Amino acid sequence: xxxxxxxxxxxxxxxxxxxxxxxxLKDYVPVPNIYPVGRLDYDSEGMVLLTDDKTLQHxxxxxxxxxxxxxxxxxxxxxxxxxxxxxRLGVLVKGTKTSPAKVQLLDDEPEIWERSTPIxxxxxxxxxxxEIKISQGMNRxxxxxxxxxxxxxxxxxxxxxxxxxxxxxxPGEYRELMPEExxxxxxxxxxxxxxxxxxxxATFGNKSKGSxxxxxxxxxxxxxxx
Length: 226
What we know:
Layout: E1 3-8, E2 35-36, E3 45-51, H1 54-61, E4 69-76, H2 81-89, E5 92-93, E6 96-97, E7 102-105, E8 111-112, E9 127-134, H3 141-148, E10 153-161, E11 164-165, E12 174-176, H4 179-188, E13 222-223
Parallel strand pairs: 3-10
Antiparallel strand pairs: 1-3, 1-12, 2-3, 4-9, 4-10, 5-6, 7-9, 8-13, 10-11
C-alpha cells in the first residue's frame, strides 16, 4: 500500500486529470495509482492525503467515522464571540445545519507561506485568522460557515488531517508517510478524536522527515503579508 501527503498549492485541482488543462496533482506527484482522500477546493491550500488503500480512503472520507480536519481561515473582520459560538454550535448551510465544530480565534497569524496570488482585502477592514476543526465534508463547507455568520473567507488552508500535520512541506511538495503515521491514521479512522478547547497561536507541528519536492519550490514558511 502507498501513503503520501502533499501540500496542495492554490489553484490546483484535487485530482490527477483535467480536460480543461488546469493544474492538477499530476503536475506535482509522479507516483502512479494513488488517489486523493476527499477533496480540497481549487482555491484552497494545504494537506491532501493520497493512497491506494481503499478501506482507509473510505473511512477517512466518511463523516460517520468523525475523522477531524483542521482549517486555518483568514476572514474579513474580527469575529464576535457570538459569531464564534454560532460556528461551534452549527449554522445553516443550504438548508442543512452543520455539525458542532471546534472553533477558536487565533491570537496571531499562522506561520505560513505567501500565496501565489495575494488575497484581495479592503484597507479599512481588518482581517483575522480562525481555526476550525470539523469532521463533515459538505461542499465548500468552511467558506459557507464563515459567510453564514457574516465573516467572508479570504484564504483557507488545511494544515492537518487527524494527527498528521504538514510540517515543513512547501506548497507543491509531497512526502511518503512513515509507518508510525500510517498506524496513527488507521487508529483515528476507527474512532472519533477527543474534543479540545481554548485559544492558541498557530504554528505547524514537527517538521517532516524527508520530502519529495516539485522543482522551483521557494523558501521556508513565513507569515502572510497582506
